[in-house]
Amino acid sequence: MAIRALLLNCTLKRSPAPSSSDLLGREVLAALAEQGVEGEVVRVVDHDVRFGVSTDEGDGDGWPALRAKLLAAQILIIATPIWLGQPSSVCKMVLERLDAELSETDAEGRLCTYGKVAGVAVVGNEDGAHHTIGQVQQALNEVGFTCPAAGATYWVGEALHKLDYRDAGPKPDTTGRTTKALALNAAHLARLLAEQPYPPPETNNAGVGPSREPA
Where in the numbering of this chain does the NADPH-dependent FMN reductase-like domain appear (predicted)? Predict the structure, then answer.
């Protein structure tokens, strides 16, 4: 089957401002294209996504349109900068919105995110890449996504310097290598899960994470 990818760029910068997260994200999509995967980049801050933990916060919320793209894709890539050693606030908002997927199931009782593959791309000029990847991957896995082996790529500049990834030049033997591994394994896993989906739960509550009430 045709495999599609959606990349959510969680930069704090609105288009058309230059974004290192955008650059690395597009490199991931280029590597996925080599595996026969079509992809699309969405810069989240260009849309009026509201804070919340539902699928639609109403009043012109931009999330439902992004969610429709997500549900139509088999691979989700989250690209985020590092701020204060953490994923960006936009990334955290996206993860909070994905919490609603714990209450959304298909006709056989599986989460709608089951069978979808998730990867992470991180950039920054400070420490925190592994911490950020760990936070994002754990959250994505909890809401039903499957993370492949070598499911992340990243670049961080020298500590206390201000060099951005988009100004650092190609990194084929480091970030480039991990980007290709992410793409190869994500595409492979997405095809495997498309051919052999996760089994439905034996009861309405088995195998599905707990839904949460809004705090």
Answer: 8-150
- Work out the angle between the directed axes of helices 129-142 and 89-98 (0-180°, nearest 10): 20
118-167 pLDDT, tens per residue?
Answer: 999 999 988 899 999 999 999 999 999 999 999 999 999 887 778 899 99
Question: Is 25 within a domain?
Answer: yes
Domain that holds residue 161: 4-195
Question: Do 91 and 136 meet the contact criterion of CB atoms below 8 Å apart?
Answer: yes
> Residue 202 domain-assigned?
no
pTM over 0.85: yes
Please report the beta strands in 3-107, taking only residues with DSSP state E, as ranges in sequence order.
4-9, 38-43, 75-83, 86-87
The dihedral sign for the CA sequence 130, 134, 137, 140 = negative
Residue 61 and residue 43: Cα distance in Å, rounded?
Answer: 15
**Residue 167: φ, ψ to 5°:** -105, -5
Instruction: With beta carbons less than 8 A apart as the criterion, state whether 33 and 180 touch.
Output: no
For residue 123, the domain's CATH number is: 3.40.50.360
Residue with tokens 């088995």: 206
Site of tokens 């260009």: 46
In a domain, 214, yes or no: no
Structural domains of the chain, count: 1
